[in-house]
Amino acid sequence: MSEYRLLPAGDTALVVELGEQIDRSLSARVLALARRLDRSRLAGVVETVPTFRSLLVHYDPLVIPAATLGARIGELMRDLGAAEDAGRRWTLPACYDPRVAPDLDHVAARSGLSPTQIVERHSAVTYHVYMLGFLPGQAYLGDVPLDLALPRRESPRLKIPAGSLAIAGRVSCIFPLETPCGWHLIGRSPVALWAQAPQPGALLAAGDKVSFSPVSLREYESLLAKAADGRLTLLPDEQPIGAAA
After folding, report:
1. Region 4-33 average pLDDT
2. Is the peptide bond before 143 cis (omega within 30 degrees of 0)?
3. Can you tell me the distance from the alpha carbon of 207 to that of 29, in angstroms, rounded to the nearest whole number?
4. HSE-CB of 22 using CA atoms within 13 angstroms
5. How far apart are CA 2 and CA 80, in angstroms?
6. Per-residue DSSP letters for 158-225?
7. Section 97-101 average pLDDT
8. Alpha carbon 141 to its chain's center
9. Any idea what the Cα angle at residue 143 is, between residues 139 and 239, rounded to 5°?
10. Alpha-carbon distance values, 155 to 44, 146, 147 (Å)
């Protein structure tokens, strides 16, 4: 049986910790457990929420006691491998023009690379969506190339625009809403990661794969106008893919 820790999170949730590192193989096991739980349709389980290294399981204690849920999770952990058909592949437009990338030159100076090389390296990666969090629809994408991995800014900004494309450590994010932020802003995307209509929902999900396609400032502004009018429609590049990339 795979090693794990089961921790209470209040009286209506359990945390299943599967490890301590952040990497794609551990994420694949987290997603595999989420898939097994979802497919089991266990009465009383309300929602599963994948994180970098654990799975948060919300449950109704009036339907299933914590001990019973813990025992069932133990059964599902047996021979746990990587999730099959764990996600979709997306290509998202991103503008790296200095006018929407206030930290691009700073990141270039810190890394010893040119701004063009920063764009080339950042957009060459197929990122893995480890989890959603912080803001509605915000996906934590890894893994940023090592030569771009910088600590967060010493002085966070009080407000950044929605759509800001940022990096910190080995992680990259598109911030879906205006927010305070201490990450390095290297671009902006016109893609709405969270939709309110026709019903609330996130574009990306844990296990998805994401690539960035550089666009000019003019193209970005055109796409942003389409997004504001509800005319920008994005679809996955292909059918679901495995998680062991």
Report:
1. 95
2. yes
3. 11
4. 15
5. 7
6. EEE-TTEEEEETTEEEEE-S-EEE-SEEEEE----SEE-SSS-EES--TT-EEEEEEE-HHHHHHHHH
7. 98
8. 5
9. 60
10. 45, 22, 22
Hey, what are 212's tokens? 């960035």
Backbone φ and ψ for 227, nearest 5 degrees, come out as -65, -40
pLDDT digits (tens, 9 = 90+) for 180-205: 999 999 999 999 899 866 667 899 99
Q: Residue 86 is encoded by which pair of tokens?
A: 């764990």
> How many beta carbons lie within 10 A of that of residue 153, not counting itself?
16
- Going by pLDDT thresholds of 50, 70 and 90, the confidence category of residue 3 is confident
- Reported as half-sphere exposure (CB side, CA atoms, 13 A), residue 192 has a value of 17
Token digits of residue 69: 């849920």
Its pTM stands at 0.91
Question: Do 209 and 24 touch, CB atoms closer than 8 A?
Answer: no
Q: From CA 94, how far away is CA 217, in angstroms rounded? A: 9
